[in-house]
Amino acid sequence: xxxxxxxxxxxxxxTPGLASVPKPPxxxxxxxxxxxxxxxxxxxxxxxxxxxxQHYTSNSTQIIxxxxxxxxxxxxxxxxxxxxxxxxxxAEYINVPRKNTWTLPSGLDPVKAAGLxxxxxxxxxxxxxxxxxLPKNFSVLILGVTSASGxxxxxxxxxxxANRVIGCARNEGTLKSMALDDxxxxxxxxxxTDFSSLGHxxxxxxxxxxxxxxxLLKSLQPNGRVxxxxxxxxxxxxxxxxxEINLPGSLLRGxxxxxxxxxxxxxxxxGVGNALDGLxxxxxxxxxxxxxxxxxxEVETAWNEVGDRTVFVP
Length: 314
Description:
This protein is of the alpha/beta class. The chain has helices spanning 45-51, 110-129, 148-159, 172-177, 211-219, 249-254, 269-284, 299-302, and strands at 3-8, 17-22, 33-43, 68-72, 78-82, 93-97, 101-103, 139-143, 164-169, 182-185, 203-206, 226-230, 257-261, 291-295, 309-313.
């Protein structure tokens, strides 16, 4: 059996290192499994959280990090793949079920797909799987809009029919530079944030959570149904107590607000699979996002870098 290079998390380590490991065997006897040569794989926030054991989907037996990527079959076909349960993607080769692969659309660069599908899935699944009966030309408020996922959400919700997109984040300079119809500056404390001019919104996509959500929901002045979807908890990185909110029952009784979450558990891999063809096609026309391309051998030094989204290539 030949060897390949892969990133490995060893017991007690906080960052993976490059190692030589056995290449997965050819799945000749299993037509439902395909071996892929990994062309690009993303270092997502979720990858770091799972590798450190801090995410609710962490798998203690997975020592090679990585949850998705773009690979090439023996026949030369480029596909996007998911590998939540099938070994990590930070390797030169990986075996995955064929059902967890999707043909890469013409015009979609492998690096772009590897870097953007994961952050794009958050808003895509929130709207397609956790919202229903959205009105024509619906309006969306995005909490944490300047995050990587939030920036992508602005473009994706417009491609899905949103007519009014409002952002909320701390950095006013960044907010001004974005293609938003309006914005609100997130203040500290969160209760100082001014939502008085927000008006009605049909959907709230929340990447922040914590006190600002309490304040926002109490500040709403809806003239119809509001669908709130919790996606992430960025506020908890500086304040662990922001993992929880307290809502008065009167708020739920007194307004037409639905509260849902979006993540593994709220939907499953089958739901992701049903949505991926549409998402991949939409990414073809999404504007360029900053992606830092690194060699897999740089994984140890790149693991904790902040800034641009990182994609590893062979």
